[in-house]
């Protein structure tokens, strides 16, 4: 069974996870800001923490989050997509499903999909150079 | 001159019994086995054969971007099951968030794992005749109107019988 490395992080009061292979960099928040504020994308307050994720795939968008919690290895069998019933009622298409970590189910998000639909929130001047509108 | 034989007394009684049976055949009455439960102080019923399991409320992972009545998903025996707050869905005035100690997982044609509904307390299991179930109260509105299958008197309470299998059709437009 395939093993997936997940980065677990917080945005507001939500604990989320994403496959580490989707990321090129996890770093302190940049002075120039981020392309996407995850807190705003969730319809909540802007992320106030000091971390920034950079996607591995072009255009290498950056995503602002609150805090990195841990990196966990999980069997793919312990990850499951959202049931169709929930997916059809969820307005965020980037919410992929769940992973069972330490007796707890954590939401797994698809960050490339988030950035494919996310409007710029912090650094719009940089976006045209990266091929965005 | 020959005489017809006089039937014995027991034969007469058997003949009368046979005629009575033919005149009034026994019609089986359809029985329904129902489980009643409380949500926000209101007593509801659901058919026992529509229940997959009743269990202590599992840990629920909230899913962002879903309606407030959809609490999230829970892992039940290796399956990811949607869990919803029945009190909030039905807009019951006394509904308290995340306070329910039990989850009732009901069968649903469109959701293979079933759907979990939080409930406050199990009440009892009763068997009633199908004809004791009256049509739902016509003034019901919203999701309750779509889920109500009928009403019946159980002890002192007028109980709404819910068809929770219809949950699969509710809220998809949200």
Tally of individual domains of chain A: 1
Unreliable parts of chain A: 121-133
By secondary-structure content and strand pairing, the structural class of chain B works out as: mainly beta
Number of domains of chain B: 1
> Helix-strand pattern of chain B, N to C?
HEEEEEHEEEHEE
Main pleated sheet of chain B:
5 strands, mixed
Number of helices of chain B: 3
Task: Specify the structural class of chain A.
Answer: mainly beta
Percent of residues in helices of chain B: 10-25%
Largest interface: A-B, 23 and 24 residues
Shape-level CATH architecture of chain B: Beta Barrel
Termini separation of chain A (Å)?
Answer: 40 Å
Low-confidence stretches of chain B: none
Counting DSSP E segments of at least 2 residues, the number of strands of chain A comes to: 10
Features of the shown structure:
heterodimer; A: 133 residues; mainly beta; six-stranded mixed sheet; four-stranded mixed sheet; 10 strands; disordered C terminus; B: 174 residues; OB fold (Dihydrolipoamide Acetyltransferase, E2P); five-stranded mixed sheet; 42% strand; elongated
What does this structure look like?
The complex is a heterodimer of chains A (133) and B (174). With 133 residues, chain A is mostly beta strands. Chain A contains three helices and ten strands; from the N terminus they run ββββαββββαββα. Chain A has helices at 38-41, 84-87, 111-117; strands spanning 3-11, 14-19, 23-28, 36-37, 51-55, 62-65, 67-75, 79-81, 95-101, 104-109. Chain A has a six-stranded mixed sheet, with no helix packed on it. Chain A has a four-stranded mixed sheet with strand order 3-5-6-4. In chain A, a hairpin with a 2-residue loop joins β1 and β2 (14-19). The radius of gyration of chain A is 14 Å and the shape is globular. Chain B is mainly beta and 174 residues long. Chain B has one domain: CheA-289, Domain 4 (OB fold (Dihydrolipoamide Acetyltransferase, E2P), Beta Barrel). A five-stranded mixed sheet of chain B has the order 8-1-2-10-9. In chain B, strands 3-6-7-5-4 form a five-stranded mixed sheet. The longest helix of chain B has 15 residues, at 9-23. Chain B starts with 8 loop residues before the first helix and ends in a 12-residue tail after the last strand. The mean pLDDT of chain B is 86. At the A-B interface, α2, β9 and β10 of A face β4, β5 and β7 of B.
